[in-house]
Write a structure and sequence with these properties.
The chain is about 35% helix and about 25% strand. The chain is an alpha/beta fold. About 25% of the residues are buried.
Length: about 150
């Protein structure tokens, strides 16, 4: 239960950073965490009304394990790879239930070394070719927001 609460708090904080960095006109007072099968966040866009967001962290599991166990000092070796395609494919397979438009927010939180100029061209083809509920996808990386893909 504590782990789920930590994840929920982290997702809300990530979403707040996203709306601040992107300047998307979302009322911060309307942000609410939702439970599956709904998308992660429900909020109100000031012009469009209710809007849902599904969040996914682009995270290299090897790096996450490494960061959880490493101590300061010393020399370390770690293998890493870009996990973004695998993560996006998994997210696109999921089913969501909502009556509102849904957007996908991908974010990095220090547990991947893949730069945005690799994540963007890697994920776009999947988002563009896959039948999904998402109308738009974003990437939040190091305080910068990128529009990855849009259905229109």
């Amino acid at each position: 239960m504590a782990l789920e609460q930590t994840k929920s708090n982290r997702e809300i904080e990530t979403f707040r950073r996203f709306i601040s960095a992107s300047r998307i006109r979302i009322d911060p007072a309307t942000i609410e965490k939702r439970e599956p099968p709904e998308p992660d966040i429900l909020c109100t866009h000031l012009e469009e009304g209710p809007l849902a967001f599904e969040l996914v962290e682009i995270c290299d599991s090897n790096r996450a394990k490494f960061m959880a166990t490493v101590t300061e000092g010393g020399v370390y070796y770690m293998r890493t790879a870009d996990p973004s395609a695998k993560i996006i494919r998994k997210k696109l397979r999921r089913k969501y239930q909502t009556d509102y438009p849904v957007e996908l927010l991908c974010y990095t939180d220090g547990r991947v070394i893949t730069p945005a100029n690799v994540i963007l061209p890697t994920t776009r083809p999947y988002l563009a070719s896959w039948e999904s509920i998402f109308r738009c996808a974003w990437l939040l990386r190091r305080g910068h927001v990128y529009r990855v893909w849009s259905a229109d």
